[in-house]
Amino acid sequence: MVSAVFHSPLAAASESIAMKKEAQHVDSARAMGTKDHQTLAPSVANTKTPAAARPPRDWRGLVMAVLPPLLGLGLLVGIWAIVSISTASSIPSPWETWKQAVVLFSDPFYRKGPNDQGVGWNVLMSLERVAIGFGLAAAVGIPAGFAIGRFEFLGRMFNPLISLLRPVSPLAWLPIGLMVFKGANPAAIWTIFICSIWPMVINTAVGVQRVPQDYMNVARVLNLSEWKIVTKILFPAVLPYMLTGVRLAVGTAWLVIVAAEMLTGGVGIGFWVWDEWNNLNVKNIIIAIFVIGIVGLALEYVLIKIATAFTFEEVKN
Amino acid sequence: MNQHSSKFIEIQNVAQTFKTKKGFFPALRDINLTVAKGEFVTLIGHSGCGKSTLLNLIAGLTMPSDGTLLCANREIGGPGPERAVVFQNHSLLPWLTCFENVYLGVERVFGAASKSTGAPSENKAQLKERTDAALAMVGLTAAAQKRPGEISGGMKQRVGIARALAMEPKVLLMDEPFGALDALTRAKLQDELLEIVARTHSTVVMVTHDVDEAVLLSDKIVMLTNGPAATIGEVLSVDLARPRNRVALADSALYLGYRKAVIDFLYTRQAHVEKAA
Predict the structure, then answer these.
(1) Which of A311, B14, B78, B174 could crosslink B31 through cysteines, CB 3.0-4.6 Å?
(2) Which residues sit opposite B15 in a β-bridge?
(3) Over the range A188-206, which residues count as b (16 or more CB within 10 Å of their CB) and which as e?
(4) Residue A40 has pLDDT above 50, yes or no
(5) Residues of B in contact with A25 (CB under 8 A)
(6) Domain positions in chain B
(7) What's the pLDDT at A145?
């Protein structure tokens, strides 16, 4: 099995998982070693290469990793250029936009009055709102999710409420926020709070309900205290679910903040988009779209990294 | 052997009925069984006959619908560390190292002053020593700091056994502990288990579906009839001298006789699983 020939990194990965599951007598160090070897050189037949020899540089894998994404980006820029030409530059061309972006990012943190600040300030202000709203939602949502998942009574009590309120667009809550908090900034934070609490409550609750019965049986046989059950079993078992909730919540929050800021004004990336629209500065709007996308991507990437670090192999039945 | 030790676990008229969507499902009925202290008992039967159900009852993980279960003359009211369970799928916590998995139980049993025996609580060094000793007993000292995901299935099952034994249980309950392992690893662990049990004089109740395993390990083989409403069909005492050696036993007439008796029960008298179910 170790000397099997793999044709793609994907197949190699799934094969190595299957191998781990089935051939459990293979000692771990060796299994790990072969796995690394496979991912480094997926198309190399291990039968021919002696284990000591260094795998040859994997040009094909490198090309596959770099070329398609570049082509994709190229396609986007190409279509953009065609649209720009066919609309007689009412949509600015990629090159024009690039030049504008260079100017913009050479001084991202200037301040010329409340309505004219650098793009860096706008992004940071939006991130701050997301952080506060999201943080509050996590502080409320995660313990609530634990309680709802652990106690059936609470679950039955809150599930109808959650089902009713979750589909409501978070922006519908904005007027309520404006009314209660009497300010644009807290209202935007309130909107973020509302939109990011649901994924965290629901995922945490589902995670608690799906803690394998085997782990709970272990807890019962060892007669662990409730504190030990929570810290040693429930929390680690729920963590991957919780982090999925966090990831969904951050994604939604970042989507919603742009819309909320368009409505509330102030400083922020969403307000900036709206302001540039009022100035008919389309280049800045396109730059804003890229900035929003890149920040969202970065948030997602960081949270996926955190989630994989805390995901463990489950008990297999 | 006095009265107390010959009836260490007593199961009296136990029945277990499960409530399902289709109504009540009788899993076990009229179970009467005694296990002496230091005895090695295996429960064998076709799948679905309620072997694991019976083990869970002894563990206290489920309560019987009828009848009583006693352990050391006290009614079994719930699970506890004095009846340690080795689970079929090892059930190690994947976020803890092997050491921490074993330590969790040790800490619970010996970290606090015992009310029943009056033993004082032990300090961290003593607890660590117990954990190390348990891992050494199953030959896993080198893997102590590894997580379950980094070791093989046989090693995981050994950690499960170490976790159970480290709590110094009165009874060791094993639910098909070697069922998921390949034949060679299984044989190796069976030999290790025999050695450990001989050393610790543990009382063991083990569920298995492997005839050779049952004959090799047991003092008593409890054969269950097919479900639903399974009961004990026959109890076979295995009087083979210990220590037992699987190679020497392979052509011992006595061993083959016991083996034949179990096979006869399983495949001749209780053959029609489908018809009964």
Answers:
(1) B14
(2) B66
(3) bbbbbbbbbbbbbbbbbbb
(4) no
(5) 152-154, 181-182, 184-185
(6) 1-77+203-214+224-277
(7) 93
Give the CATH number of domain B1-77+203-214+224-277.
Answer: 3.40.50
pTM for the complete prediction? 0.70
Choose the mutation target among A21, A217, A222 for the interface with B, i.e. most B CBs under 10 Å: A222
- Interface probe, candidates A221, A238, A242, A312, chain B, greatest B C-beta count within 10 A: A221
- Can you tell me whether residue B114 is helix, strand or coil? coil
- Provide CB contacts within 8 A for B4, sequence distance 6+: B37, B72, B73
Tokens of B151: 């070791």
Q: How remote is the C-alpha of A111 from its chain's centroid?
A: 31
A317 inside 8 A of chain B by CB: yes
Domain ranges of chain A: 1-56, 58-91, 119-309
Peptide bond into A108 cis (omega under 30): no
Residues 6+ positions from B162 with CB-CB distance below 8 Å: B98, B102, B134, B135, B137, B138, B140
CATH of A119-309 among 1.10.3720.10, 3.40.50.2300, 1.20.950.20, 2.40.50.140: 1.10.3720.10
Any CB–CB contact under 8 A between A220 and chain B?
Answer: yes
Among A212, A215, A221, the residue with its CB nearest the CB of B85 is: A221
Return the amino acid letter for A194.
I
Q: Where are the beta strands (DSSP E) in chain B?
A: 9-20, 23-35, 40-44, 66-71, 74-75, 83-86, 171-175, 203-208, 220-224, 232-237
Integer Rg of chain B from CA:
19
Pull the structure tokens for residue B246.
Answer: 């699987």
ipTM value: 0.81
What pLDDT, on a 0 to 100 scale, did the predictor assign at position B81?
85
> What gap in Å lies between CA A167 and CA A200, rounded to an integer?
15
User: What spatial distance separates the first Cα and last Cα of chain A, rounded to whole Å?
Assistant: 23
- Considering only CB atoms, B94 lies closest to which of A25, A27, A314, namely A314
What strands lie across the sheet with B203-208, from one edge to the other? B83-86, B171-175, B203-208, B40-44, B220-224, B232-237
Identify the residue with better confidence: A266 or A255.
Answer: A255
Burial status of residue A90 (CB atoms within 10 A of its CB: 0-12, 13-18, 19 or more): exposed
CA dist., res. B14 & res. B87, Å (int): 22
Give the minimum alpha-carbon distance from A180 to chain B in angstroms, rounded to a whole number: 44
Ranges of chain B with pLDDT below 50: 1-4, 275-277
Which residues are registered as beta bridge partners of A117? Answer: A111
Per-residue pLDDT reduced to its tens digit, A69-127: 999 999 999 999 898 888 887 888 888 888 888 888 887 777 777 667 778 888 898 99
What is the model's pLDDT at position A314? 53
| C-alpha count within 13 angstroms, C-beta hemisphere, residue A300 | 11
- Tell me how far apart the alpha carbons of residues B237 and B250 are, in angstroms, rounded to a whole number: 18
- Which is more confident, A42 or A157? A157
Rounded CA separation A61/A59 (Å) = 5
